[in-house]
Every structure is written in C-alpha cells, then in structure tokens.
Amino acid sequence: MSKLSALKIFSLVVTITLAGPSFAYAQMAQPDPSSINQGNIDTVLANVEGSAAVASGEDTSELTPEEKRVKAKENLTKALSLALEKVQGLTSDLDGREFPEDSLEYALRNEFLAKLDSYKVFYTDKLNTLDGLETLGDIQTLAKEIKSYRDEVYAPGVEEIVEFVLVFYSEDVINIANERFTRISADLDKLENLGLLEEGVFSQEMADAQELLAGAADLRSHAWEIMFPIEEGIDDNATSTIQEVSEEIPETGLEITEDVPPTVKELLETSLGKVKLAYGKFLEISSSVKETLGIN
Prior knowledge:
By secondary structure, this protein is an all-alpha fold. It is about 75% helix and about 0% strand.
C-alpha cells in the first residue's frame, strides 16, 4: 500500500473515529433530569395562586373574573400535565434498566417505580378533580394542595430517583468514553506505524484523557458506595472524596467545603465534568491530526 493510499484510508478512519465524541458530548451536555420542567411547573402554580405578574410578568389586572378563572384552570392543567410527563419519563428510564432479582438495585428500582406510580395516581386524580371545579377559589385551593404535595412528597422522592438514574447514566457515559479512548489510541498507533504521525506525538494528551476518565470512574464509584452501602465504614472515604471533589471546583463550578460531604448528585456532576474534559482532549487530538494529514 502506498503512503498516499494509506493517507486516504486513515484520513477517513481518523475523521470518523475522532468526530464521534461530538455525539457523546451532546448526550452528556443534556439538562440534569432533576431540573426538567421544574421551573415551568413553579411558574404555572404561581400563576394559579394569583402571582402571575410576579412569576411571568403578565398583566392580569384587566382580566374579568371569568377570564381569570379560565386562565387559572388552563395553567393548573398545564402544571399537572408537565408533572405527569416527567413521571412518565423517569418511569421509562427505570423500566429500561434490568438488574438481578436478588440485588439491591432491583429492590430500589421497584421501590422507585412504586413511588412514581403513586405520583401518577395523585396527579391524574387532581387532573380529574380540576375538570369539575367551577370557581377560581376552588382552583386556587387545589393548586395550593398540589404545591404542598410537590414540595413535601414529590420533589424529595424525585431527587432520589434522579440520583439513581444518574448513577447508571454516568456509567454508560464513562464506558462509551473508554471505548472511544481505545479506538483513538489504536488508530493513532496505526498512523504512527505508517509514518504519517510522529511517534508519541499525542502521548501526553492521551495520558491526560486516561487520567481524567480514571478520575471520573473513581468519583462515580464513591457515588455508588453512598447510594448502595454494602460494607460498614464506607464513610472512612469521605475526607478523600471531599478533597477530590474540591479540587474540581474551578472546572465544574461546585462549591463544596471540607465540612460538608458531597452528595451523590455532586459527585456524579464532577465525574461527568471529567469525562467532558477528556472529550475536550479527544477533540484537540482530532484537530491536530486533521491539520497534520491535511484534512479539511
């Protein structure tokens, strides 16, 4: 095979292999499931409770009593629908995970599915109740009941469920990143063997990426230990874990002191932050390889 033919073949290989992180990066950059729709629900409930001007900037002073009633009913219907959508989304996430029947993960998943089912029953029931309400006062009373339920029951429960989902989501992300690392490493070796790249030219970048992915896996392991405590004395790792997370503050925006142990969510966010930085290294390598090989 001529050097020119090899260049054409490996130009395609490198372009495909190194461009791939863009897709995984996009997946990783999606919003935290715990925040989806929450702001919208808060605004809608505030509207129903009579704080529309504060919550959305909308002027309702000129609305007739009947128009206010209709608007309140529409807004509360929207809030309930948003909550039901989120419940369905989390239910689908949990249904998509399979665990051994004798495992703690299996038991927790079923417990969370039962909670989600109770949330669905509550919000569906309130949606049916709302359909029969005819006065603004009754609608506002129902809105206050829904808000109280959300704050005291729904939100804390969903936070636990989201952490459970994120533990396994982060595992998927890290595994994909490690597979990408292996493929990139193999392709770089091929290009070096063909003399198209200087030997070891990207050794430091690959070493940095590997270290970041190892750190991401370690942080996820700490999150796993918190969520699935199997042995006594797991808290002995708290100090080192806090220090590890604290070191990542400039890169992830976390504000953690040594007096406050990190939460599962904070550990996973920091872990995913490391994966994000590793993909940054991949993209740097991609740009450099394309420039060296003359790929536009």
